[in-house]
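Two quick folds needed for the group meeting slides. Do the first one here.
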Amino acid sequence: MSRFLLPIIVGLAVGSGLGWIQSKSVYTGFEERFLVSTTTLAESKGELTHDEVEAQAVGTPRVEVEGGDNYEFGTMLLGDSLSHEFKFRNVGDGPLFLDMGGSTCKCTIGDLDKSVLKPGEETMVKLTWTPKAVASDFSQSATIKTTDPLKTEVQLQISGKVAESIMFEPLSLALGDISSSEDTTRVVKVYCYLKGLELTEMRWSEPTTAKLVDFAYAEFDPKLDDPNSIALKGYNVTVTFKPGLRLGQLSGRLQAVTNLREELEPIELAVIGRVSGDIEIIGGPSFDREHNILTMGTVDPAEGSVMRLQIALQGKNREAAKPTIVSVFPKEILEVEIGEPKDSATRRLYPIIFRIPKNAPEGMYAGNSSRNFAKVMLRTSEDSGEFPIYVRVNVKKPD
């Protein structure tokens, strides 16, 4: 019997020992993690020991930031550093402990002069920021932790704008569609933020078309636009795009050159626009603008079909010109009508309606060769040349 009991007793003893070791290890780990207090900022600064901090933790602290926790700095120059001090006050009846939390990457918190405030005491928290990019809306933040039970964190916020030595307004020039046969004029503002900096020249970035872009500028006081502006000089720049620009997307940028050209590269303004001729056909996805082809697809003659395009006239003669239909082929399948015009700021738009009438005869105009299109010929005056709109259509009864 003893032969059987001995291994059991030994096993129990070993198991109990291992269990005690494991238990000791586990609880020792908990003890190390949870019973050892971290050092407070006050203690690390030599203001109070940890015991003194605990001894003073009576009453209820209340944090107040004089003037609020948001600061609007206006406009600053790119690359400069600005600072602002927020005044923290303890308006409670117990000691208020402050500690530094995190901040955004462009904003740093200065060291706290005091990290323990007795009731009625105050201290300054300094934020410094150095933006690395131009921003029309710049915002950064930093966090101060407190022992106020109603406000355990104070989120300090700074905001404003960041400018280069020169800035354009608007930040890009959107022209829309402009005519290739008449002047197009726009006005932009240039602001100078450096002392002694002056605008000496405006340029068009593309040498091949530079002679087709003219500039005129006049100085003005930027505080007339904004009394809080830190710009030292302002210029109204009139830009004129003259006839002769190549059709299609406008390629180029406006460049401002200053009297400090050796120190400063030209500041550029993106230009977005499209140069089009005096006559342009406008349509949706069914219209091939490059080849003037309208695709009406397969049409059931029992139902017919209607599609619309627009003829856009621009340039100085747009009011005198009027599109007319010269010919339609084939007349028994295709009907074309020009509607009443509507005017925009720079264009006169005529709707042009393409109709396959009900009960039209069958016919296939697949456009697989130059002769296999339906077609309408148009012109805008007696002296103008004719221009075509091709129609790809298959009039067929369903199978």
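Then this one, please, same format:
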Amino acid sequence: MYATTHFIIGATAGLITQDPVVAFLGGCASHALADMVPHHDYQETKWGVLDVAAAVAIGFLLVSLGYGVSVLAGGIGGMSPDIEVVWAHFHPEDYLPPNPRRRLLFPSHSGLLPHGKLDFPWGFILQLGMVAALLTLFVKEAS
């Protein structure tokens, strides 16, 4: 799932909880649940850079609109499990067969929980719909 999608889902946890610690943990938990939904994952670094930039921009926007640290903590919690995926992307020799020295640890990355897959464009459209639906909560909250 895209970083932007994970950020918005986690930020929603922050909007609901209004507690930064609970929001961060809720964001992390939401990452595992969201990864189980069939979705598209990009395979090229350039899309990852653009995606993370979009998530950071949305974070700045939400803070500038007056949403507090809980929303930001939830969003960061939602994205943070993918740090290991980024690390593995830049260090494939440690993670790929025939002799992987390391393995991914987060439950939806390690295989402990299922990781849904849906080809482009449907996996993209699904995430776009999720982000749009959740952003309406922020708009309603602001009015």
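Slide caption for protein two: Residues 91 and 140 are 43 Å apart (CA to CA).
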